[in-house]
Amino acid sequence: MANVLITGGAGFIGINYAARLLQCGHTVTLFDNLSRRGSKENIDWIRKTFSNGLKIAIGDVRDIESVNSAVADQDAIFHFAAQVAVTESVRYPREDFEINAVGTFNVLEAARMSGRNPLVVYASTNKVYGGMDQLTVVESEKRWDYKDLPLGISEIHPLDFHSPYGCSKGAGDQYVRDYARIYGLPTVVFRQSCIYGMRQYGIEDQGWLAHFVISILKESDINIYGDGKQVRDILWVDDLLDAYDLVLSDSSQFAGRVFNIGGGSEFTVSIWHEMEPILSELSGRNISVIHNDWRPGDQKVYISDITLIEECGWKPKVDPMTGVSMLWNWVSDNLSLVS
After folding, report:
1. What pLDDT, in 10s, does the model give residues 269-326?
2. Fold of 3-338
3. Which of 15, 37, 197, 307 is deepest in the core (most CB within 10 A)?
């Protein structure tokens, strides 16, 4: 059994992974400043659910002393703490840089100086590839698609850090990768696509699918930016956690490597024209939306080529209809929490 630190551990992905690790008997420390919507509710839930092996460390990745203390005795670190919205990064670029770039550097340095050579897994983003305006996309009735990339974007696609968020997450991405090359720290980068699932308190700027479900159940307005044909590969959170488990169980196979991880070419949807029928069926009514102009840097298509991680024994299992139905049921049962 391992000592595992999860930064941003009170967030959506962190709390789900913490629950899985605790069920398996690991000791888990959740490091979080509790600033994100839903984080306090997630902490309350996990404290009630698990009595053994859980530690809570309230702190901020920008504070190197707090990070050093949290990292000191860990065998593995899953670094999820981040500023996660492109729009917020445009409004507050310095804060975005300090959280995402400096915060990641602090985690890496703490890991390097700990003397334990812990595994460090970094939750990066598909936004490191930028708008990908050089790629040819084709339009059909309900969606955009790549003309020449049937499997999507691979890890060798050129990086293009578009937006302050793309720059700050991209800086972290490359620092994590380089600490394996320069210092021998066993680090892994996951460039994650659209992750969704239970305990996700989605908002308009981040977690769009959960935001749609929450808004429909609350009978709130939904804004669609662009034409609604933007395509994303979506990944159910438990499928993502399976990939984390693989890395934790055999870090030598993954150390120093970068992986795109998402639903891949099989689990894609256009954000409204193909998602709306699923949501209308679940709600039992037609759903109206407010249409707005495109947002800067919005990718018409992003699909992860997941061949590399599939070669390591991982494959997503939960299809969009099944996953969205499970998310709908969770939000329906917990609407007072997410409201």
Report:
1. 999 999 999 999 999 998 989 999 998 778 899 999 999 999 999 999 999 999 999 9
2. Rossmann fold (3.40.50)
3. 15
In the chain, the largest separation of any two C-alpha atoms, in whole Å, equals 58
- 231-236/137-139 β-pairing: unpaired
How would you classify the pairing of strands 3-7 and 194-196? Answer: unpaired
> In this prediction, what percent of the chain has a pLDDT beyond 90?
91
Whose tokens are 């955009």? That residue is 144
| Angle value at C-alpha 224, between 218 and 227, nearest 5 degrees | 150
Interval 120-137: pLDDT, tens:
999 999 999 998 989 999
Q: What's the burial of 322, exposed, middle or buried (CB within 10 Å: 0-12/13-18/19+)?
A: exposed
Listed in sequence order, the residues at least 6 apart from 226 whose beta carbon sits closer than 8 Å to its beta carbon are 292, 293, 294, 295, 298, 300
* Nearest 10 degrees: Cα torsion 68, 187, 299, 242: -100
Q: Active-site residue 165, yes or no?
A: yes
The secondary structure element, H or E, covering residue 291 is strand 290-292
In eight-state DSSP terms, residue 114 is T
The domain spans of the chain are 3-338
CA–centroid distance for 65 within its chain: 26
- Is-contact 254 188, C-beta < 8 A? yes
Coil, helix or strand at residue 325: helix
Query: Cβ–Cβ contacts within 10 Å for residue 320, how many?
Result: 21
Closest CA to 70 of 36, 103, 25, 39: 103
Q: Which listed residue (165, 175, 196, 244) is catalytic? A: 165
Assess contact for 207 and 12: CB atoms under 8 A.
yes
Measured distance CA(167)–CA(263) in Å, rounded: 24
